Structures are given as C-alpha cells and as structure tokens.
Amino acid sequence: MNKRLFWSAVFTLTGSVIGAGVLGIPFVVVRSGFWTGVLVILFIGLVVALINLLVGEVSLRTRKTHQLVGYAEKYVGRFGKWVMVGAMVVSCYGALVAYTLGVSESLFSVFGLSRLVWAVVFYVFMMLVLFGGIKRLAGSELFLEIAKFALFALIVFLAFSSSRFSWANLRGFYLPNFFLPFGVVLFAFLGFAAIPELRDLLKKNLKLLKSSVVVGSLVPILVYVLFAAAVVGISGFLTTEVATIGVAGVFGGFMSGLFHFFAVLAMSTSFIAIGYALKQMFVEDFGFTNFDAWVLVLVVPVVLISVGVHSFVRVLDVSGAVAGSVMGVLVVFMHYRARFLGNRKPEFVVHLPKLVYVFLVLFFVVGLFYSLFL
User: Fold this and answer.
1) 260 C-beta neighbours (distance < 10 Å), count
2) How far is 244 from 232, CA to CA, in rounded Å?
3) Residue spans per domain, the chain
C-alpha cells in the first residue's frame, strides 16, 4: 500500500512537471553551450526540488488544506494571494501562447500551407474541446499521457542509437551564459501547484510526502538532460526552437512523422490541461460563468499573438522567468513565516539558514532581470 501510494505521488508530480516545455530546452542549451546548459538544468532542478520541499512543509504546517494561492494568502496576506494569482495566470497564458505557436510550426513543417492557417485550425479545435468536450476526453487522459511518455522514451532511444548522433555536438561551457537558459528551463520545471495535491493524495501516510517530493523533483532533471543531449547530439547548432522540428528534418521519413506527432501530442495535452485549469480558476475562484471564463481563457492568447508575439522560446523564457521567479520568491516568504504562524506540527522540516533564504530570493530576482532585460 505504501509503495503504491509513494509511486502514485511521484508520478503525479512528474506528470505535472514534465510537459511540452521540454521542447524548448535543447535550443537554449545549445545557445548557451551544452555543458553550461546541463549545469543550469541541474542547478535549477535542485533549486526547484528545494522549493517543492518548502511548499510541502508549508502544507504540513497548516491544518486546513489549501491550493498554492490559499497558502500565499494565509502566510503572506491578500497581497501575496493576488501576486500568486497573477504569476499563475502569466504562466498559464504564456503556455497557451507558446503551445499554439509550437503546434502551428510543427504542422507547417509537415503539411506546408502557412503557420497562421495551422494556428487557427489548432486554436478552433482547442476552443471546442475547452467549451464542451473536456469531459469526453477525461477518460483518455491517462492513455494520452502514457502515449506521450512512451513516444518520448522511444525518441531518446532512437536518437542515441542513431548513426547521425555525434558526441562532438555536446560541447561548450561558457559560464557568462549561465542565465541565458534560465526562463525556459525554469518554465519546464514549474510544478509547485501540484504539491498540495500530493498532500491530499498521501493523507493516510503523510510521512511519504518528503520522499515522494524528492524523487518526483529529481526525475525531471534526468529526463531533461537526456532529451537535451539526444536532440543536440543529432542536430547540433541546427537545433530549432521547437526541438523536434530540427531533429525531424535530419531523419526524414517515418522518423520525421514520429517526432512531429510527439511534439503536437505533448503540446496539445498540455494546452488542454492548462486551459481547463485556468478556466476552472476563473469559474470557481472569481465567479465567472463558464462561457465568460472560456472567452477570457481564449481571447488573451489571440491578442498576444496578433500583436506580434511569435517566438516559441521567447514566450517560454519570459513567462517562465516571471511566473517561476515570482512564485519561487513567494514560497520562500511563505515558508519563513509558516515556521512561526503554522498551526500544525509537520511530518518533516527543512532547516534553512537565513543566508539560504536570501540566496534563493536573489537567484530568482537576478534570473528574472536577465530574462527580461538582457
């Protein structure tokens, strides 16, 4: 029973974290220098693992269960609540824009026509799904996730075993470029909001929360390093913003279709999950009608794309840096205050010196500044 609970929690966290954001990682890794990029993945992955543990402890110090926004309000006040809401909205809208751009780019690479046509086709389909079809798709969600991860594993295996793979492509270490991949990599690791769900899942054995958070946070690090190495090893400096497009161009034929199918599947499932979560937040937390929430979810990305937001990686970079940094800093403050204001004895405690709190805040602030202005 304990093992089943543990692995269920681990898969819940990894499934929440590993999504279409992985498709932008190889591009920024190769631009920063491969080994610089690997260092950034390792470092940000460990920082996010620590943040996840802090969220876990905050939830355990609180008798009543909340979502991330609720914990922010309890320990940082109404200002903290609205800042957290803003960060989550930025993250969601950034993802919806990026995935629309990414899918249109992938479909254009396969079928031609124009990126605009495929963006419209994809968006209309997503509109219909979010408006009324989400319940009909719910039963196939697990199947789609399994298919996505199976395709991912197959792609990594085929890349490493291919004669086109070159270890010589995995080169470059330039420390001044350390913050270049910051926003994209941080976006790919965002899963803070899943931790309260883990607490609820493990309510019969909360002692498992710490180990499940640790393992669930470390698995994406390995996955992202392997994927970056597989793609860069094949396409080198020809790596594209949507990683699978460049690799598909190298292979051609059936393999090309497989890579594009994986990209479209990954981005579509992520779009549905994020779009639905954002819609439900507007309905449940802000009192919008289903129709008004649906319109609000879908209009903003259209406006952003219409005014010239067209770079898949740049959208991931900015939204990841803004949302991830703001949420990270808020969690640091939440954890610090929960030590004194919490009303429950936690099953585990993360002991942090004040200097570590300061370091975490500075790290997120510097990364945010770099992504926005440099």
Assistant:
1) 22
2) 11
3) 2-373
**Tokens standing for 281?**
């937040």
Encode pLDDT of 104-125 as tens digits: 988 988 887 888 888 889 988 8
Dist CA 262 CA 244 (whole Å): 8
134 to 16, 131, 210, 283: CA distances (angstroms): 18, 7, 33, 15
As a whole number of angstroms, the distance between CA 275 and CA 139 comes to: 17
Taking the C-alpha atoms of residue 168 and residue 150, their distance in angstroms, rounded to an integer, is 27
DSSP code at position 33: -
Instruction: Using DSSP, state whether 288 is helix, strand or coil.
Output: coil
pLDDT in tens, 34-74: 999 999 999 999 999 999 999 999 999 999 888 888 999 99
State how far the Cα of 271 lies from the Cα of 200, in Å rounded to an integer.
Answer: 25
Helix or strand or coil: residue 250? helix
Which residues, 6 or more positions from 81, have their beta carbon under 8 angstroms from its beta carbon?
Answer: 69, 70, 72, 73
Residues contacting residue 125 through CB under 8 Å, at least 6 positions apart: none
Q: How do residues 263-288 score in pLDDT, each as one tens digit?
A: 888 888 888 888 888 887 888 778 88
Q: Which two tokens stand for residue 332?
A: 């640091």
CB 276 within 8 A of CB 137: no
Instruction: Report the CATH fold assignment for 2-373.
Output: Amino acid/polyamine transporter I (1.20.1740)
- The answer to whether 33 and 173 have CB atoms below 8 angstroms apart is yes
pLDDT tens profile 200-248:
888 888 889 999 999 999 999 999 999 999 999 999 998 999 998 888 8
Phi, psi at residue 61, to the nearest 5°?
-85, 0
